[in-house]
Amino acid sequence: MNILCNYEYHAPKTKAEVLDLLADIGDKAKILAGGTDLVIMLKEKMIAPEHVINVAEIEELAGINFTADGVEIGAGTKISDIGASKELDKEYHALCYAADQLGSYQVRTMATIGGNIAHSLPAGETHTPLAALHAEVVIESKKGERRVKLEDFILGNRKNVMESDEMITKVFIPKPAPHSRSEYGHIGLRRAMEIDCANMTVNITLEDDKKTIKDVKMVMGSVAPKPLVSEKAPQILIGKALDEELIQKVGEAAQSEAKPISDIRASAEYRRDVIGALARRLTKEAYDLAMEA
Ligand SMILES: Cc1cc2nc3c(=O)[nH]c(=O)nc-3n(C[C@H](O)[C@H](O)[C@H](O)COP(=O)(O)OP(=O)(O)OC[C@H]3O[C@@H](n4cnc5c(N)ncnc54)[C@H](O)[C@@H]3O)c2cc1C
To answer: Looking at residue 191, what is its pLDDT?
Structure first.
């Protein structure tokens, strides 16, 4: 039984070949990486592309490379490799931990970071850590390269800024400042294989006194159509040493900024409740660990 639609299958060997194909047939094609989202959409007949371009075997698209300024993670890098990288975990803890929470082991060994970003679901596991860590998504076409901040890349549920002739080739994350720490947390209905009903990353940098907050980026997931960067958290926290009162205030701020909806996974009310709890817990954890960094 043919459960998928009819499409022409392409298996280019290099990035340049993919970009050639996208320039010619990108408007009728879908890129296939790990297939953990795409194959479901094909089977469910949510999409019916005329062409499928498999990029899974292209080695130059995968890998974690540390540079003087930060780290570059190839779009084709498996989520399991990100979760398992001890070197990455040292400076980009929230991303590694989030990667380790995505789906099951089997899913993580198929799924790629490029696919997670390009699929652009509001609950996407890697989105809030990437945004909180100031990541840029590197997009390429035959016309050249452009870099877009993660929070600007995703426009809404399954919507992003990519044109039909473009693909994600890598993600760049700048080197974190001294005395900083990022912490990720998520809430789901059950511990295995759930898509989060809310998630968050808090990235805190301290001054050299290791007490005063120099910078903070708090990003909420699944409480708005796209990753939501808190405007209030920096106003509340920067220039101060964390205490109980500030922790309460930052929780209330996150609740006031969240714009959750009710759906199959959770009510809007529940999401607003847990986003406050995540904000309080992760702010305290990130602050305490930044003091030791
Ligand atoms: C059982 C199960 C559990 C899951 N649990 C989670 C979870 O807990 N959290 C979570 O976030 N996700 C979860 N997912 C979703 C999925 O595994 C991730 O989104 C995954 O990272 C997608 O990557 P992929 O390589 O499989 O993408 P694919 O399925 O190959 O592609 C997904 C989309 O991205 C596009 N795409 C892929 N690569 C590129 C590229 N380089 N440039 C441009 N476009 C590209 C494709 O065309 C497609 O539109 C789950 C999936 C399953 C099946």
So the answer is: 60
DSSP-derived 3-state class of residue 54: strand
Which residues are within 8 A (CB) of 242 and not within 5 positions of it... i.e. 6 or more apart?
A: 213, 283, 284, 287
Which residue's CA is the nearest one to ligand 1's atom 5? 103
Pocket of ligand 1 (CB under 6 A): 30-38, 55, 75, 79, 102-103, 107, 110-112, 114-116, 118-119, 124-125, 167-168, 193, 195
Provide the pLDDT confidence category of residue 293 given band limits of 50, 70 and 90: confident
Q: DSSP character for 76?
A: T
Question: Residue 139's beta-bridge partner residues?
Answer: 146, 168
Closest residue by Cα to atom 23, ligand 1, is 115
Q: Which atom of ligand 1 is nearest to the CA of 127?
A: 11
Mean pLDDT, the chain, whole residue set: 95
DSSP 15-47: HHHHHHHHHHHGGGEEEESS-TTHHHHHHTTS-
CA of 103 to the centre of ligand 1 (A): 10
CB atoms within 10 A of CB 23: 14
